[in-house]
Amino acid sequence: MATATLGRRGKAAPFRSRERRRANLRALLYLSPWLVGFGVFFAYPLISTVYFSFQRYDMFTLEPVGLLNWKYFFRDDAAWTSIKNTLWLVVVMVPLRVVFGLGVAQLVTKLKAGAGVFRTIFYLPSLVPVVAGTLGFVYLLNPGTGPVQAILGAVGIQSPDWFGDPAWSKWGLTLLALWSIGDLMVIFMAALLDVPKQLYEAAALDGASAWQQFTRITLPVIRPVVMFSAVTGVIQTLQYFTQAMVAARVASGATDSAGSVFTPGYPDGSTLTFPEWLFQEGFRDFAMGYACVLALILFAVSMIFTLILLRQFRGFAEEEA
Amino acid sequence: MKRLLVLSAAAGLFLMTACTAGTETSAPKIDPSATSHEPVTIEFWHGFSADNELKAFQDTLEGFNKQYPWITVKATKAVQDDQIIQSVRGGNPPDVALSFTTDSVAQFCKANIFQDLNPYLTASKIDASTLFPKVIDQYTQYAGKRCVMPMLADTYGLYYNKKLMKGNEPPKTLSELADLAKKLTVKDSKGDIKVAGFVPTSQMYENAPIHTGVMVGAKWTNPDGTSAVGGDPAWKTLLTWQKDLTDWYGYDKIEKFRKSFGDEWSADNPFNKGQVAMAVDGEWRNAMIAADAPDLDYGTAPMPVADDQAQRYGAGFIAGTVIGIPRGAKNPEAAWDLVKYLTTDTSALVTLSNAIRNVPSTLPALQSPDLKKDPNFQTFLDIFANPNSTTLPAHINSAFNQQTMQEAQIKWESGRAPDLNGLLADVDKKINEKLKLTAGD
To answer: Chain B partners of A255 at a C-beta cutoff of 8 Å?
Structure first.
């Protein structure tokens, strides 16, 4: 029996392996658009970035320098300042956005009259182009000519120099982020409207307070959405660039002219974010090799948060099942 | 899977080799005896964008066309350095490119982004040492390569509003400037500034350390490229003077006042509007005042100098627009004809200077009888010709060095960093570390 089986296998094996090879080739063929895309837009840039991180590369000439770029990272005060600032934004701005977004969504879903108007009012700022919104905020909060100071001044309050004082500049950016909360509000509204009504009715019959209903029913049900908002918020904040760059440039009064150099992060590096420093090093200071080191670090950190997100979703899917 | 990974890596390395292969350089082909006058069209990218500048440029190019009728110049306006660099990387650069800043010259030369023009100068029998003031060499050359030529120059001096000066003469020393600034300042009952005699902070439009450092003869770098900031007492003199005057106003007050100013390049410039009595500015402001505030009664003078450097009075900071032939230019010989015309032809430089009120950058053009010279503009011509005037020599990290210094200066003048010695030592450290990163030990 054993011999016969072996014999059958012996005859069938070449045919099957040819079949398998053909099937594999077919699969590869189907996958080829993705493989080409992956290779050209991900694998090649990633390999290049790693390669360039060991080079002195000014975008034109290459010179191998071993670990010089990596060692410089640990001595680069500006890089560490940018890490601290980015971390501040992750720890303060992201949770505030989630809490504020959820709060606004709660309010507008509970409104009996004028809900459409308020939803529109809260959503509109998120349609304003980022650069225009930032410019508007810097002008509004300008301590010299801004209307906010004019109003506060009339009642005897001196407003802080929001984008000119390092103690306030990140709060100014946070205020801007809260103003354009529309995107998160819509996501939370969808989640809140999806919570089964009968749960609230049952809880109300049991005498649960509004706070208890929120913490015992609403939050557990919308937890995946809150988690999604928080983690995507962190990933977006790790790439925070435009608002910080525009606010610093306008607030500093730096002009784009010969002899005028602009330092991102004004004032005192307080708004310098990690991607800004990466851009500055690579495209302004011609230190592309070092910028590749910064890019790899940013990639690794973003990857960690992406994995957390994926793991959480797997967890939610298992819970659902 | 393993095989796939190996294949991907090999493909990646191949692509990388292909991409970096473009970084090789080749010597320019120059044929000084070329007599072929085949019609040719050359691409010329420049950064001018204002109407009066474009008109002046067009007039100058018409002069070029008369001399070189077989060369058609296709000009593209409002181009920034980034675009020039990307075009060279992409292998499709213009034939001639102009840059407003001298900060990138070292990089342009080191990475061969622009071609070395010395062979062209030799072939055309042009002696740069007798054509240009010596200081120009420092911002058009790097490590023996002259990869750009100067096309017009900028010099910096002191503008003063005659009405607000109330009969006072422009100051010649920093002490005189501080005393006069205090005397001319007007505050309201709340202590808010209405008119400032002089805004001393480095954040004021043209008060960047690159310009004001000349007032005390401050040095940026040593010949080996390392920082000279911490070791040069001149910087301490300047920063202490600026801080003392800032404190007299109150940093918050002067910042609030500064933030009420209109755009530097608009008619709302605070000097035009009589908000400041004295201001450091470039020679181009003359043309802007003529256009935006023709009734303003003002005068110009060299910048004041440190009290113990009276002999240096009359000197100023010099920089300028530079122009060159990018690597990979398709018509380098015709391109050189245009560069040569725009940078060495007296009538071209005088036409441009008269129209946009920049300082002509050659010695013969400076002496030209056709050059319009009114007293306010003459101040800047004199600063340009002054042997004590200086520039920021081309440095591989020029912009970074200035940013680092300015950042330290803002911390100091705002009172957020009280230890000046420590601050300047930190500037040294950052500049020297960066030099190791970008240029090696």
So the answer is: 205, 263-265
